[in-house]
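Entry for the shared binder. Reason: the reviewer on the internal report wants the predicted structure included alongside the sequence.
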Amino acid sequence: MTGAHRRILVVEDDPETAGQLVEELTTSGYDVDLAANGREALSQGAARDYAVITIDRMLPDIDGIAVMRQMRDDGIAVPFLIISALGEVDDRVRGLRAGGDDYLVKPFSFVELLARLEALGRRSETVAKETILRVGDLAVDLIARTASRRGRKIPLLPKEFQLLEYLARNEGRVVSRAMLLQHVWDLHFDPSTNIIDVYVGRVRRKVDDQQAYPLIHTIRGIGYCLRAPG
């Protein structure tokens, strides 16, 4: 894993185990966040992009399997490595069917844990490249149909998402109003409509307001362009 893809969320309620995992993973070069229960895991998983989430099956408030199912329902596609003392075949099968990508039984070798994390991280990076469009700090998830800047989700209506997706697919290119009308609304020409300007205005406010720099630029007399500085 490289760059931003080295951030891991550890979901573990036992302080000693959690401390060991965080220390070992940090020493191995990972950026590590810790959640001590299911509610914290759901909150952090929604707020940031992780390469991998390690999760204990037995949490004090919400079962680890329920946490995974909720994240999957919320469109979070990050790989899960289940770490559990429950090592029977039925336990492993249930965990994997609930959305887990790998299963490691306690006690375990840390060398094996690292190897499994690296494998899941490579898979995560490959999937991200195929399904997430990135422009600066903007991420457009084509599978979950969501967008975020700096890890914070942007609330978009379906047509607003389609508009942003089309601009992101044409990063750095000037997109005319006619092109947007055709590709987003499936209309070939309507000189009287101002629907493009209205929707671009809405998306711009959601994407660019209170951000470090704007991404959506108006090209006077031509159309719009989505691009990051530099």
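Summary line for the report: The longest strand covers residues 7-11.
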